## 1
Amino acid sequence: MTEYLSQYGYAFLFVVVLFESTGLPLPGESLIVAAGLLSGQGDLNILLVIAVAWAASIVGDNTGYLVGRRFGRKIVVRWGEHFGLGEKRFAMVEERFQNYGFVVVLIARFVIILRQLNGFVAGTMHMNWAVFFLYNAISAALWAGAYAGGAYLFGAAFKHFFKGYPTWPLYVAAGIICAIGIFGTYKFLFRKDDDDEPEAGPKPARETRG
């Protein structure tokens, strides 16, 4: 998608990050990194990249929040099973949001799966909108600043350091890190706590024959 980013610039970045934030599986995070690298080369303005990514994620997350608040439960009942997120699993996600509250919203942008479900789940749970908006805005600012700013600051040095070396090990390492992140998020969202397990009752006593 880098060629589209070079051609359409901030508008393309805004659209992709917005739709990813509503729950669609799009590479918004990778695109922000690419935009940061292009900013380091002088093709884009880094401050505008961060601002556009921040605004797009806010609009997308709040769109997901409104959809979840209005139609969330109906969507889960009707379509959840087709995406591996039936009522039972969705209840487990809701439980994580209920137990950890604003902490989940604050870190959700940095975690795949959580990033896509963030606004939708918060809306379905009828989380206080002002609280959601505040912590989501903080998270989006940190997220956009970290990825775009990091690529902008270290992109040129990174290319210079690895000049003349094959880059495929870096892609393999990035893939492994992503896989670990996905697995960890999956376990966090869908694990069963010990308190959820039904307690085993006392075994019935054997009848003795007199």
Note: The chain has a mean pLDDT of 75.
## 2
Amino acid sequence: MRIRLHSVIVALLLIAGCSSSDNQPETSGTAAATPDEWASMRAIDACAILDESALAALGKTGDRKYAGANSHTCVTTITAPDGTATVARAYVGERVQEGAKKIDLGGVDGFQDTSCAVTVKIAGDSGISISVEGYEFEKQCGQAEQIARAVHTQLKSPPQNPYASPFHNKDPCQPTDQFAAQIGTLKSIRRPTIINCEMTGTQGTLLVSQEIESMTTHVHGEPVTVAGKEAMRHQEPDQKDRCMIMVLLKEAPEDAWFTMHYEVASPSDPCGKASKAANASTTAS
């Protein structure tokens, strides 16, 4: 079977615009108490940012829904009076690109990058971005700025909902101590995006990811049970040093599930270690 172990993580890294400086590992001496740079953003409800009333001046908004695999991203369609439809996206956890242009959205500063996304900083250089789907960059830049101005109140004081999904307010690097026990002495820990955790130890690596998985396209692995929940184990026949456990947490819209992925790369028993990491996290949640 052919399975997707790294594709979502790689895609998310590209979306988040991680720079080389962002990719530096954190020191292992404080790994168990590593500060979570995304902590102030984990409870923000991306769909509530695309407020129907705030966007009413631009047109009628359609259903708001999570975008792809990330519950911190929401999209909606805004239909103008002339029938023109614009797909707007709010993404919590964006990093402002170097050289982004500063713009005043009305009491809050935004930063527009070369992709036309407008980002308002929440912590450091990270925050919430507003963007528009399409390929006409000149047009999109104006649309994204217009939408960001319309929801500037929501960007200035982001709406909180720690229960919006099983992932809101949850740090994928926890429980750190139990995770580290599976890969030896912890050497580094990183959170490249708001939904990922990467740990490196003396006996291997552990990648944890909070994802919305489409059951219509997912290649089903070997059925297993983790802390009483349905799960799947994926291991390629030619990759005995790598194994991924996917735990199904809760049904999501459009024939999808909120899932946790635990992938271990280790020369010894990667499936056993991934299963133990999954059990520790699922039991603790």
Note: Residues 1-30 have pLDDT under 50 and may be disordered.
## 3
Amino acid sequence: MRKLFFGSLFLLGLITIFLMWYFQFMNFDFGKFVLYLLAGLLLLGVYDVVQKKHAILRNFPLVGHFRYLLESISPEIQQYFIENNTSGRPFSRNLRSLAYRRAKNVNDTHPFGTQRDINGADYMALRHSIYAVIPDEKDLRITIGGASCSHPYNASIFNISAMSFGSLSANAVKALNNGAKKGNFYHNTGEGAISDHHRQGGDLVWQIGTGYFGCRDERGNFDENKFAEKAAYPEVKMIEIKLSQGAKPGHGGVLPGVKNTVEIATIRGVIPGTTILSPPSHSAFTNEDGLVAFVGKLRKLSNGKPIGFKLCVGRTEEFIALCKSMIAQQIFPDFITIDGAEGGTGAAPLEFSDSVGLPLEPSLIFVRGTLEKFGIRDQIRIIASGKALSAFSILKYIALGADICNSARGFMFSLGCIQALRCNTNDCPTGVATQKLALQKGLVVTDKSERVYNFHKNTIHAVKEMLGASGHQHTSELTIQDLVRGDEMVTLANRYFPDSVNTQV
């Protein structure tokens, strides 16, 4: 291939010189341009041959660059030319389009019938009633806060899941919070601390991760005074202890160095420009008794605001031990957020995203059943997080045991995210997941905050319509018996054998 490359350039050069001579140098300027171009290609080819990092370029000089070019645009090729309306991952084109239409407040209906394989093993359906009703609730809301909570919070059933400033741009965070303010639903800060961009007037759930960003001392340990100061912010309605997340359970959060600006580093209390890897576990506690006591400590430090924790279910016996410790200490979280292995993230090792953690559906069945068997389900709200985007996904998770749902990528779509899969590169083309100011400018806060509001409003409207079709007035009436698999016409509970894990109680 090397001989062919250099031989071809030599031959083209000779032909160019011959043509210039044959036409008596009438086209001398054009011929000179061609010769310069060939000389440039020759130099690039020589460099490809002598460099030692890429075997393809050494063996296929110049031509090998096309391989890297095509590889760089492979996600776009896949999305625009190969995937159909239902095969896209993590979200199909149909679901992305649904989010875009609802965010833009335009027609969200679908023509000509379903495109799904309704006889496939993964088809799930809502059991509708021939006596459909019209839910009379102005809004579907759930109160979060147990007996020990002094400031219970009345939450929407659909809210913005955890996404940090750093992972998202400043404009994206502002738009999300403004949309949450207008729509009266909450905005989870993610583990990257509370920034000024979060404080636009919308309700906040402050997430405390293993790095304790925003409430850490100089050694990275939990600082009670810094926590109490920020927990007193009036917009902070609830506090969530992040144990793990579905996309990378057992692995700390990751902020690539290219996204760690001076502003973000100041907010988090870290060094700018460095890749930030949060510890895989908390230093404030090491077992279930310590975690439960930490819940009680945060409740006291926050003057009684709702306190909960977030986890992806792994070892079920550890969750059972947690429940036993709650009862022994008589300290109960106000809510538990369950994140499924299908959850999203800006950056994670592939092995963790693909091969660690339980999916959300069996996790909800297990957690709900375990809390019920211990007799503490009524004291604790369950929040589901993991690909909750459509009205059916929200109803499904609530039927499986959740009280409310969080969505991250759904609200990213409402901001204009096109699933370009560039979240970890700082090159997000829509300005959502980047710290590059030139790209952020494309995201206009006033316009996108309105779309965030519309997406929530129209999704809740769709939830009410589906809820009424099932014959229920409120989501609290849903149970697992409202779901079936089309190929079996049996309740979903039979698929996951929940008794086999709940018998450990």
Note: The longest helix spans residues 445-469.
## 4
Amino acid sequence: MAKTTLTVKVHIDGVREILRAFDVLPKDAQNAIREHSQALARKLAVKAQVDVSVHGGPQGPNLASTVKAVRDRVPAIQIGGTRRIGRHRAPAYGQLFGALFGMNSRSGWFSALKYKSAQGHQYREHRGQDAYAFFPVIEREAATISREWHAAVDDVVRKFSEGGV
């Protein structure tokens, strides 16, 4: 079965080396960093929901309800899924990329011959790799999230190297 959600992890410099070093720490340390990462991801998910709702075009408000934080060692958020949204009850994954990136053609019910002469557009104009929503927020917040994640990792390492917790 194909994936129906888009999961994006925040880019953090040096994350592979840090996660490799975490392998020697107890399982509780791994869980602690997951909790910190999920808290950071929740903050980012709220900002992404607002951005998708405002800048996601006509489908944005419906699509914003599918944004959520993912529990992982690195802050990650997810959008899309099989939930049926909108007036036509289309699955969220079917509207995802059209709402975020735009589209230069018609799809789904709007591609029928009877709509050939319609002047309206289902999605905004496709601009290449420049997204209208979701990705710009992640890129803008990446430095802040990275800084906070590194501080959380330092805190967890300090707690577990002292023999506490």
Note: DSSP finds five helices and five strands in the chain.
